[in-house]
Amino acid sequence: MKPITKQSDKKTAFTIIELLTVMSIIVILIGLLLPSLTMVKRYSKEVKQKAQFHSIESALEFFSSEGEYGRYPDSNGLDENADHYCGAMRLCEAMVGQDLAGFHPLSHWRADCTDGASTQLYANYPAGTALGPDDTTNLKARKQPYLPPDGANAYRLRDLYATFGAFNANAADLFVLCDVYNRVRNRATGKGVGMPILYYKANVGNTKHDPTGASPPTASDSAGYIYNYWDNEDLVNLKLPWDPTTSHPLADPKKFYDTITNKKITLTTATPATTGWPYRQDSYILISAGFDGIYGTDDDIFDFEK
Fold it and tell me: Distances in Å between the alpha carbon of 114 and those of 41, 75, 126?
């Protein structure tokens, strides 16, 4: 008797229910994984931003130790001619010069990039005569950039903003150092670039700090405040580069002073009683707008730990 072999002509395959089950599992796994990937990406950016701050801090220490200057650059919002020249611009000038060729010791920290008279110190300001590559007198006087120009992340104001608010038209050619987040699109190239890094120098001879922002100082006088929120107020008031109708929360003096307040410290003075004291009250503060590109929100990055 021959054995009977029965062969099925049915082919093995997944059913629709099995396919839907597998696809559902994949979707669930992706849903669980994406937030983690986003968190890792944001954390890596935060680490990179803090590393950039560390580089700037080291460069500022070198700058302040130089005999020709001997202190951190000021961050006043107005220059000696009452023109608008903010803390972020002064930081860039100190670190790489206002044409990225290095700081000039004769600088008066002026928006017109002169020595206070008629000598043009930097090449990029259109109101003056551009410096030629053979202008050895000027170039020999320069300090080597305290940050490598190719890694300083410096961009002109016109690369970031369409309008310039209180700054005059020529200020469009002034540089600022930008953070590592690519929230802004370079208006000339379309490349993602960061927001300007805000720089505030402490007025170490002062003792006033009011977290309520009840009586903020003026642009031309710190009125006894350790930090003056006006130092970058003109820049912050340019609003969002991609939405010039929306303001930054940090434009509010109360928000600024509350943000930089170390609430672990409580001091009582005659008038008024002060709760809190500013971080880094003896040096300076750096602020990045963080992942969202908005100053005064929870993801801002500072050169101190809150």
Answer: 43, 17, 12
